[in-house]
């Protein structure tokens, strides 16, 4: 293990289910690992759903049953000559130790470890796990309930964890998800001001909403967006502006 090699710990974290934590973990991990040449690993500590573990099983089955995807996967494997990134299941209260152990014993240097953590602060060990992250990214949608719980949660992180000083956290970043390109709702302006007043960081990139991403699980599709075994299709990345998000994400984590 090269002592100089810095492994970055990252969580897409939110107090609200259904805003896309697992989806973003997968999209960013797959883009970095399969397209940008980084080595990543994922810890799925979102007990009891463990949706990433289930997703990987589903993704592998889908590739095996779909000729177009099978060709894509074969081409990818022969081009980058890289295995799928590992996804490990773990309880939140000991996930940091498990991740450090994994990084220290890995035969290849690990650039980023992503953590899919439970969406509730009441989970045992969750605050300790969050305090062990270097960067936290929180998807938000222009919905009052989502915003209230997110802002309370983000302030809690900033006040409780970061001010105590016993933390690895360098940045906490909010970003808009599911933005409808057609509607310029005044809500965004109101929330942007509020986020600024609270002294929280909001990313420039916004992820656009598109029905096309919902169709990705159809068995005869020729492209993938969210997959643990392949990177997102480049056209879909552009359509959702995920490409711009990834650029900004990489600047923030400074690998």
Automatic annotation (TrEMBL):
Example GO molecular function: ATP binding
Residues annotated as domain CobQ/CobB/MinD/ParA nucleotide binding: 10-219
Domain of life of the organism encoding this protein: Bacteria
PANTHER family cross-referenced by the UniProt entry: P-LOOP CONTAINING NUCLEOSIDE TRIPHOSPHATE HYDROLASE, PARA FAMILY PROTEIN CT_582
Name assigned to this protein: Iron-sulfur cluster carrier protein
Gene source species: Chryseobacterium potabilaquae
